[in-house]
Amino acid sequence: MKPKKILVIANWKMTPNTLVEAKAKMAVIKRGVDKLKMTETIICPPFPFIATLSQMAGGPKGKIKIGAQDISKFESGAHTGEISAVMLKSAGVSHIIVGHSERRAIGEDTSLIAQKLQKVLAAGMIGIVCVGEAERDNDAEYLTVIKNQLKEVLIYTSRQQFANLVIAYEPLWAVNNSQNIAITAHEIHQIVILIRKYLKDNWGESIASIVKIVYGGSVTPDNAQDLVHNGDVDGLLVGRAGWQPEGLKSICQSLNIEKKKPKIKLKKKK
Ligand code: PGA
């Protein structure tokens, strides 16, 4: 069996300011990741830069894939300011992030996120749905928070659509953290087990094993390898560290090796 490529999804958020800068960054990233065989790089730029960067990347068949940071829950028509999944697809987008915590912070709830995810998957695109707790408590209530988010956002997902699903575990306290405090790989591994068990209990073993799970929150070139290998994730969702091409290149290069089994053994519950 061919080893799975590790996903490196770069969320550029509301940067850079101009198309000229975006093109310059893309050119450097392209050169840096062109020869990497074990990673798949997905750049999610702001909407106005998507079409140009997608052309630079060589379209959906290119080595670098282009993602979007959000979409509309509507398909088309009288919805001023909205952008549909199909429009993004026609501009060369293959992946779409939904439910990012920065969008939840401005009012998106899980019901809206579930509808958006459905539009992405119905358009035959890859949906990257973000889940994660705001804080950790000693009674492990955060595990219930994550399970409830999964239940609500996956409500419309059909069995066939799981093959196009990426779950991004992004604990809010680690996202955009000014001290770059990422979670430990061991903590990620526990959540990966929780998510896979949740999928298995609800949809069975085969679906639980095909869904990709990535981690996001204060990823840097220094912690990327440890988080992926010991956290047992299929990739990373990178914010600030991916805004500079050098940072993104270093992360991709550090992950360009076959994925190992996590070093940390989790104790089985008796
Ligand atoms: P960060 O952001 O890497 O800057 O913490 C991650 C994200 O928002 O997905």
Small molecules in complex: 2-phosphoglycolic acid
The major sheet is characterized as: 8 strands, parallel, barrel
Mean pLDDT: 94
Number of domains: 1
The DSSP helix count reads 10
Spans with pLDDT under 50 lasting ≥5 residues? none
Task: Write structural notes for this entry.
By secondary structure, this protein is an alpha/beta fold. The protein has a single domain, classed as Aldolase class I (TIM Barrel). Helix content is 38%, strand content 16%. The protein has 10 helices and 8 strands. The protein has helices at residues 19-33, 50-57, 85-90, 101-104, 110-122, 141-153, 185-203, 205-210, 224-231, 245-254; strands at residues 6-11, 39-44, 65-68, 93-98, 126-131, 165-169, 212-216, 235-238. It has an 8-stranded parallel β-barrel, surrounded by 6 helices. The longest helix is centred in the last third of the chain and has 19 residues, at 185-203. It starts with 5 loop residues before the first strand and ends in a 16-residue tail after the last helix. The mean pLDDT is 94. Bound molecules: 2-phosphoglycolic acid. 2-phosphoglycolic acid is lined by residues 11, 170, 175-176, 216-219, 237-241. Residues 11, 170, 175-176, 216-219, 237-241 line the site of 2-phosphoglycolic acid (PGA).
Give a topology summary.
Elements: E1 6-11, H1 19-33, E2 39-44, H2 50-57, E3 65-68, H3 85-90, E4 93-98, H4 101-104, H5 110-122, E5 126-131, H6 141-153, E6 165-169, H7 185-203, H8 205-210, E7 212-216, H9 224-231, E8 235-238, H10 245-254
Parallel strand pairs: 1-2, 1-8, 2-3, 3-4, 4-5, 5-6, 6-7, 7-8
Helix pairs in contact: 1-2, 1-10, 6-7, 7-9
The structure holds 2-phosphoglycolic acid.
2-phosphoglycolic acid binds at residues 11, 170, 175-176, 216-219, 237-241.
